[in-house]
Fold these 3 entries.
Entry 1:
Amino acid sequence: MSRPTLYIAITNHGFGHAVRVSSVAAKIQELHPELLLIIATTAPRWLLESYITGDFILRPRAFDVGVVQSDSLNMDLDATLEKLQEIRKKQNSLIASEVNFIKQNRVGLILADIPPVMTKIAKAAGVPCWMMSNFGWDFIYRDWGGEFDDIVDWIGECFGMCDRLFRLPLHEKMSFFPHIEDVGLTGGNPRYSNDKIRDLFRIDTPLENTVLLTFGGLGLEDIPYHNLHKFSDRQFITFDAAAPDLPNLIRVKSQEFANSFPILPRPVDVMPVCGRVISKPGYSTFSEALRLSIPVVSIMREGFAEAQVLLEGMQNYGSHQIITAAEFFEGDWEFLRKPMQPPRLSEKLAKNGTEAIAQAVVDYFK
């Protein structure tokens, strides 16, 4: 008898979508070890395995483009439009190819975050398509106008075919979706104790003087690391493999720590020993920080509609500091000496998104 099979499709954009889906996939495996996971994504296997410890089948496929970027803040709209038009033009062959794969592997359910064309693939394959996200790509492209308007209409048609949307916090309305179920924040749980992290990284600064720098899978160009010498009483931590060797900068990915951990720590593993996280607007970083009640310093991001939604959410629900790109790239980082701002709202966001989505998937296969 063949194993029940879940097909997971992840949008081809940065690492954030892969992180939040992987946290859900890991929970699904925990609840239903016999369920076979097929994960279709261009995200690297090491990233998925940093959350998913069990077996899965990786299918390298790109069903959308997201936004073409040189780094986490800079976008190429012309290249994005060109790739979107190419995907739309070739959608029939893309659908036919994937339908054959889905049928051959007896997939019982598709979970997508959040390639629009997956709903059409699912319908053609006769399989339900569930989605999870805090925004739809139509929300991003609509502001850009021009030839993106046709793309928005096509995306709306796709999203209108979704059988069930798990809408995450820090979201836009996502009005194209006919069946919406609100859930809590998603993300992973720290794998190592705070004492172990502090011991192996030799961190002796107090919590308020320990700072994590993390800017997603695309990273940032020209991070002004020279500012760190002004803060000799503080310990900084980075996942940037190209970061310089500085006395008060821990480079997690350096060879020095490669053999210290059975699995190299992720940002979520390091957050609890930090008094603040410096980042850019990104759902997964914000969500994991909010789940752990870690203060966030975020750079503003222009031209990307989701960024404003995320920044509003962080200001409403988390301890925060919002800075301009000029303050980060050209300033002297005096913002580090200023107090964090408290959340504007007293209510708390639910933190059960990972568990709620995973349980729904497991219940479907019962």
Note: The chain has a mean pLDDT of 93.
Entry 2:
Amino acid sequence: MTRSTTTPVRAKHNVTKRLPNKSAAVKPVLSKALHPRNAHQQGYDFAALIRAMPVLATFVRPNPYGNPSIDFADPKAVKSLNTALLLSEYHISDWDIPEGYLCPPVPGRVDYIHYIADLLAVKGKVIKGTRIRGLDIGTGANGIYPLLGIQTYGWQFVASDIDSISINNVAKIAQNNPNIATKLQLRLQYQPEHIFKGIIAPDERFDVTLCNPPFHRSLAEASMGSLRKTNNLAKSQQQKHGQQSKKLIAGNTQPTLNFGGQKAELWCEGGEQQFLANMITQSHEYANQVLWFTSLISKSENLKPCYQLLKQVNAVEVKTIEMTQGNKVTRILAWSFLTPTLRQKWATLRS
């Protein structure tokens, strides 16, 4: 494998590889904070959020340092915070999700969008407006990526999911936000074994695809993960607030997750690794219709098999972008089947 001569999206945050030559060590440099354009770098302005959505005040309490915060173990509080954030910062009205569906953390989700904007930039200039067309695979009931991409950069999106309740809920959100409705198409995937087939039409082109794959391999694994997260939150509260939170740890036998999540959102057969393998394999069929395929990768050990498979399917270029939110590190894996010359031509035709 030879090193890519293209300029990385942000040199401190990603590694570029060109395949399918001999592989080389991948040593990305971790970022220390959210993306520079992320509006949430300084935390939450609860005063502004409450002004935008007064009901949020019901959940806001001083933390041990005397600063306003919420109980992040409370699903209603987290949902209320999200609703206020999307209204105040992104002008998205009437955002809501059905009970039990995934409630995503906005700062981390918009980081993905910002790094994708860097990936698609031309000569360092971020592209805004409807010239960019994205496809969100598994949009969920929250529809967070197309909503943020439309409101932050004015891009167009197609959003797909195998769950009709999710699609209908995002449609309802779009109906309440005319600017979003004009830039968003929703498509139900009737064949769950397919990721792109039945969604990308023969004559369609997308600048980028996005995805947050199901993390777990089974419902049992997802439930245990939810239980661990709940207990970790409770332990953190115990350290801050004393003995009162011990009751939550001792009595928590039914796993509930503050961010929720349904089957298709949290788990699939084979978990994240198998989902990524399927996506990479199937992406080759649409090599000339998509400029960049991308996906989040939660588990670092899943990167190596992805690199190996991308080599097998003759991906021309691969980028790994690392994102940090607090102590959590996630990665965006991006790959293209187009040569640098063809990608440059794509950008020229787009403009």
Note: The chain has a mean pLDDT of 82.
Entry 3:
Amino acid sequence: MPDYHHLEHVKTQSRSKRTLWITLLLTFFFTIVEIVGGLLSNSLALLSDSAHMISDVIALGLSMTAIYMASRQPDSRYTFGYLRFEIIASFLNGLALAAISVGILIEGVRRFLRPEPIDFGLMLGIASIGLVVNIVLTIVLSRSMKEEDNLNVRSALWHFIGDLLSSIGVIASALLILWTGRVWFDPLVSLVIAGIIFAGGARITREAYLVLMESVPGGFDLEEIRRAIRAVEGVEDVHEMHLWAVSTEHYSLTAHVFADERIQPHCIILAINDTLQKNFGISHSTVQVEHARIHPHGEYGAAFLRRKRLGLRSSGRRV
């Protein structure tokens, strides 16, 4: 018999799914155009941008997989469902971006040392098309983000903002080559693009890493939450508290509390759950009510009982 979950560990992301399909198809098409154009024009800046576009195609593919996985129901093995795959996909996307940026950096340095001729006319034409495509995709993803918050869509949006800047850089590079005849502007722009790609990859990887390490999600103050729980009638101490994100906007909290023996434990639990939901938007919480004489927690419990006898309030800072 399947478990009952009061919070569904699934995501139905119809807008994100539709947006990513449109973005994936347009990106794949233009990636082919940009690779061919970069090879024909011999522009490293254009090829660098196409490498970024390849990473976008891979990232969007992983994002699509993550969205479909997130819609699967939990089972006896994956009790949190498949939501975490969204974070794993984002982590892999970030690493891929960092690796690509290093490759572009190495080739850029080589082109600085040994400049090569460039067909700047073709380079300018392809980059101009890319600028239009990236503007359209950035607008599409921005509108999707207003309806459904999703780390994958957010990372894709950041990708295309970077692509937009890259396209502007390639166009600027082509114009500078046209006006000055100095082809080293091409590898220079490619190095700037590499920096943009690396910054984006590092940011995405860091966000995913923090979720995978089950750190306290951004926007939450653990001490503020502890004080709110401590303010609930009947709660005398809060300890062993943990807060983490399973995926974007899916938070879980566990806590142990020493409770006043005169108040029914289930009343305390209901009040804590209500406080967490109303004040912090945390719907998935597990609270264990304890009595210090029965669950002493070693020296910590003994110290709590001494403070209680002296009439002192517990700070409850043990996590």
Note: The beta strands are 235-247, 250-259, 284-290.
